[in-house]
Amino acid sequence: MAATPGPNNVLFAASGARVGYLRSLPALFGMLVGFSCVIGASALGIGSLMKTYPDLKVSLQVAASGYMLWIALRLWRSAGNSRTPPVDRPAVKWWHLTALQLANPKTWLASLAFVSGFLGPNAPGGVLTDALGIAWFLTVVAISASVWVVFGAGLRTGLGAGRWSTVNRALGVLAAATVVTFWI
User: Fold this and answer.
1) What is the predicted pLDDT for the residue at 182?
2) 164, 84 in Cβ contact below 8 A?
3) What Å distances lie between residue 25 and 63, 74, 94, 123, CA to CA?
4) How far is it, in rounded angstroms, from Cα 126 to Cα 120?
5) What are phi and psi of 175, to 5 degrees?
6) Distance between CA atoms of 20 and 1, rounded to whole angstroms?
7) Which stretches in the chain have pLDDT values below 50?
8) How far apart are alpha carbons 119 and 33 in whole angstroms?
9) What is the pLDDT of residues 83-94, one digit of tens each?
10) C-alpha–C-alpha distance, residues 91 and 156, integer Å
């Protein structure tokens, strides 16, 4: 699930294409911070709160949709007449990825499944096992996201002049298309 296309991975591909792997690491860090917050909220029982108050879920879906469309529009507009890869600033900042996790249904689904299946008082091993499980889970997420950054960085080195506006617009369209996943 972590490696499948979704809001995070499209943005990581865009970041890799725009600034390369190393300059995308702050965005990766931001995603892990946000993911950790969602795991913590899941462990505290927010899943049952969302079932009790369906309007909360709809509010998150609306917020996530608006946010993703805003990012998609930024990607589309950054295409301009660019003939070379933009290197001045990342496509997304670290806090964008942190905030996105709080409204990303895919993050919530993975976190709730992980917490309900492997953590908590009924899980064997106690707190140390929970901590190791969380570390492993976040490692898998980070590796999956890194693959998308490397894919984007490959686009960066493999594309010739004049293709960047096409790449930025395609990533903008893909980012907008991920809004559908918020409502499934």
Assistant:
1) 75
2) yes
3) 25, 20, 8, 33
4) 8
5) -60, -45
6) 24
7) none
8) 19
9) 555 555 666 788
10) 13
The per-residue pLDDT for range 159-179, each reduced to its tens digit, is 765 677 787 788 888 888 888
> Which residues does 99 contact at the CB level (< 8 Å), separation at least 6?
34, 67
CA distance 145 to 81: 29
Token pair belonging to 86: 């933009």
Query: Two tokens at 152?
Result: 């984007």
Look at residues 42, 35, 27 and name the one whose alpha carbon lies nearest to residue 139: 35
Residues 3-18 pLDDT 10s: 777 788 888 988 888 8
**What is the pTM assigned to this prediction?**
0.75
Quick one: residue 90, left, alpha or beta (phi over 0 = left, psi -120 to 50 = alpha)? beta
| DSSP 8-state secondary structure symbol assigned to residue 178 | G
Q: Which amino acid is at 161?
A: A
Residue 7 CA to residue 107 CA, distance in Å, equals: 10
User: What is the residue-wise DSSP string for 20-57?
Assistant: TTGGGHHHHHHHHHHHHHHHHHHHTTHHHHHHH-HHHH
